[in-house]
Amino acid sequence: MNPNDKSTDRRDFLQQSILGTAGAGLAIASTSHVEAATSPEAKAPELVDEVDVLVVGGGTAGAIAAIQAGRAGAKTLLLERNAQLGGTMTTGGVAFPGLFDAWGKQVIAGIGWELVKESVELDGGKFPDFAKVPQRHWHNQVHINQFLYALLAEEKCSEAGVKIAYYEFPQSVEKTETGWQVDCVGFGTKRRVVCKQIIDCTGGAEVVGLMGYERLREDERQPGSFLFKLDTAHNPAENQLHRLYVHGADSTNSRTVTEANLTGRKSILAKVRASNQRLMHLQPETGFRESYRIVGETMITVNDYISGRVFDDAISYAFYPVDLHTKSGVKPKPLKPGTVPTIPLSSLIPKGSQNVIVAGRCLSSDRLANSGLRVQASCMGMGQAAGVAAALAAKSGSTPSQVPLASIHDMLREHGAIIPEIA
Ligand SMILES: Cc1cc2nc3c(=O)[nH]c(=O)nc-3n(C[C@H](O)[C@H](O)[C@H](O)COP(=O)(O)OP(=O)(O)OC[C@H]3O[C@@H](n4cnc5c(N)ncnc54)[C@H](O)[C@@H]3O)c2cc1C
Q1: What residue ranges of the chain have pLDDT lower than 50?
Q2: Residue of the nearest CA to atom 8 in ligand 1?
Q3: How many CB atoms sit inside 10 A of residue 117's CB?
Q4: Is 379 in the pocket of ligand 1 (CB under 6 A)?
Q5: How many angstroms is it from 234 CA to the middle of ligand 1?
Q6: What's the pLDDT tens digit per position in 24-61?
Q7: Cβ of residue 57 lying under 6 Å from some atom of ligand 1
Q8: Domain boundaries, the chain
Q9: What pLDDT does residue 44 have?
Q10: What are phi and psi of 396, to 5 degrees?
């Protein structure tokens, strides 16, 4: 019998409680419900997973982090609260990753690029010419088919030995001698994960929040956007979806996400009625630009970003204009010619923490730096670096900040990533 399978025990337990209560003359249904809800057995998790690396959030950064950790030989579990991989790229519908190139050459590659490239090739799509410096930054963003991307990401997880758990999220996190114990829930599922390292890729650093480390969130956040298509059928990777701002959108919890979705859908319904056009496509969820960011060992400032500071512990490049959306829209501020910002490993590590690292838009950065750093290619670069750091830390029984930087760089290069040149 699988030691994790408690279903037989539970059945026995329920039968016993039903017989016991029937004898006592109580209603079977209500009594067995009360027993099951209050007994210690009902509180114990149904499943137990022991892994090296737990990745929470299978979005833009998280899918890459999990594939990398799996390829590095770490036993990896990926937990995603939604129904598919890709996050804002797929569920949000922003299937337009930028930017893998800067000033005429590719600066971000590795597993993220591998996935994007395969999506484009399988879809018969076109690539921008990275050798050309575009007039507008977005000319070199890549149009991808969001549906294919999600399928390929799943295939690559499976090939890397990554186990995926959809519809689940952590409820509590406790420190252990060798890492963490994380109790997770999904509908009909309770899972305890015992792991050495956690990579928080939830967008808003939700696991870091559960652990009690410091996070930052602005009082007024950039708007989210709901993506849809009116009038003509959506042709993925060929044309962009229509977008409608959802002001105050916040990915912090189920209530704020519900609120954003209700607001966005209501506005789209009003638009359909006013336009007299047919609604041809609607994404399932709002795309969120901003919520919590961690306070890391290093905080990237907008001056670091726009000056292209090369950090001593840089693990990836990033490239995009400073791109802050406000109530009245956005006016991107391009970087000066030749400038390519970098991302330090220490901006992914919550201050004072051990055995946890983040990747994605929640990295430690001030608001303006974050508005440029949060784009998809940069998130993928961070995801891959976090996957390597967590896998090596799990293997050596240390923590990501103690893994020698040269070992992280070596493994990243081995897996196709581009490392900034550190003087
Ligand atoms: C409208 C909009 C337009 C944009 N335009 C562009 C663009 O043109 N090009 C570009 O490159 N970037 C663009 N961006 C920015 C970019 O898409 C995001 O910043 C980036 O995708 C964020 O990646 P992430 O991995 O941090 O988060 P996400 O991709 O959002 O992934 C987070 C994942 O974590 C999951 N999750 C959250 N909480 C939990 C939990 N507690 N347990 C389990 N799972 C959880 C979510 O379901 C999700 O799958 C845009 C963003 C928005 C919103």
Answers
A1: 1-37
A2: 96
A3: 16
A4: yes
A5: 21
A6: 333 333 333 444 445 555 567 889 999 999 999 999 99
A7: yes
A8: 7-44, 48-215+296-324+333-414, 224-282
A9: 72
A10: -95, 0
**CB distance 257 to ligand 1 below 6 Å:** no
**pTM (2 d.p.):** 0.91
Question: Do residues 53 and 390 touch, judged by C-beta distance below 8 A?
Answer: yes
What are the residues whose beta carbons fall under 8 Å from the beta carbon of 45, sequence distance 6 or more? Answer: 183, 190, 191, 192
Ligand 1, atom 13, lies closest to the CA of: 375
* CB-based contacts of 6, cutoff 8 Å, min separation 6: 41, 44, 46
Distance (angstroms) between ligand 1 centre and the Cα of 62 equals 10
Q: What is the DSSP string of 222-282?
A: PPEEEEEEESS---TTTSPPEEEEETT---SSHHHHHHHHHHHHHHHHHHHHHHT--EEEE
- What CATH number does domain 48-215+296-324+333-414 carry, 3.40.50.300, 2.60.40.150, 3.50.50.60, 1.10.510.10? 3.50.50.60
Tell how far the Cα of 411 is from the centroid of ligand 1, in angstroms: 26
What φ, ψ does residue 193 adopt, rounded to 5°? -110, 125
Mutation probe of ligand 1 site: the residue of 193, 375, 378 with most atoms within 8 A of C-beta: 375
Please work out whether the CB of residue 98 comes within 6 Å of at least one atom of ligand 1. Answer: yes
The DSSP output letter for 204 is S
Distance between CA atoms of residues 352 and 292, nearest Å: 18
Instruction: List Cα–Cα distances, 228 to 249, 250, 326, in angstroms.
Output: 17, 19, 21
Q: How far apart are alpha carbons 386 and 378 in whole angstroms?
A: 12
Give the atom of ligand 1 at the shortest distance from the alpha carbon of 227: 1
CA of 91 to the centre of ligand 1 (A): 9
Residue 238, strand partner residues? none
